[in-house]
Amino acid sequence: MDRAELDRIARWMERNVPGFSGPLRATKFDVGQSNPTYRLNAASGAYVLRRKPHGALLKSAHAVDREFRVQAALWRTAVPVPRVIALCTDESVIGTMFYVMEHVSGRGIDEPQQTGSVPGERAEVMAEMARVLAAIHDVDLTATGLEEYGPPGDYYARQYGRWSKQYRASETEPLPQMDRLIAWLGAHLPEDDGTRTLVHGDYRIDNLLFSGEGTDCRAVLDWELSTLGHPFADLAGVIMQWRLPPGPEGRGLAGLDRAALGLPTDAGFIEMYCARRGIAVPQDFGFHVAFAFFRMGAILQGVKKRALEGNASNPEQGLRLGAFVPRFAELGLEAAEA
To answer: Which CDD domains does the UniProt entry name for this protein (predicted)?
Structure first.
């Protein structure tokens, strides 16, 4: 972000952010591949700015206005979120829509194995993940004004149609395994059971901020993919990540001795979540996990295409993530077969 952009943002914040005073400095966060995110330091304190990326974008993608709306609705509920302050829909300010929210101090955890933690602390973090996910799905849509935050109807059929189209629009080379997964999902879409809650859309440990001195969650971040839909999609997203290899790229738990590390099994986490919500443990969970792999593969394909076109937040990282798409398709097929 250059000085001219910062100056325009500062002038906008003077008009729209109560108590703001400059000068303004910005530092770009390295994490994230979708909406570029910056820490803003000013005389009046620290803020966070999230904006749409520049360049041609897929329809409905990078919806920072939806992020702003849902976080405003969730403020002071049981779901911890940063307090959003102001949304700028005037693209003449910096060329894209953006919003400003408070900066929340906390501890980020990059990987679910939680390197450097002791087993008891790891177990507490996972229990907190289950608690917060249950809180998201138990949000009162009427009380928060989110009854129309997502379209009505069959969530999985709707998401299948959306991400199939997004994937085809982002396709850069043929991937037979993704073609097979798309076909399998289309043939096995479950009947709509009428369950409809707020869903985060990308619920992972690295999208949570924890207390620096404890294991309580201070903020759930990155609400770009949130909507109304089936809660098991979020739950399956957690399990999906854990089935990836450990390390900075996969950030999963595959092959690790979870019991020794103090980490729950897939079934154990699902049971914790269901106990929090007072619901029965789901049967035939394979479809949900297969769908999660497909959806994330489609998202990463979009990241790859933006990286190739020069529009990604971090092009080098975008290409590395895009290389995972075939593996996501393979793991989705494995979940389907199971």
So the answer is: ACAD10_11_N-like (cd05154)
Starting at the edge strand that comes first in sequence, how are the strands of the sheet with 37-42 ordered?
A: 24-28, 37-42, 45-51, 98-102, 84-88
What's the pLDDT band for 20 if we cut at 50, 70, 90? very high
pLDDT in tens, 160-202: 999 999 999 999 999 999 999 999 999 999 999 999 999 999 9
Could you give all domains of the chain from N- to C-terminal order, each with its CATH number? 3-102 (3.30.200.20), 107-337 (3.90.1200.10)
The pTM assigned to this predicted structure is 0.89
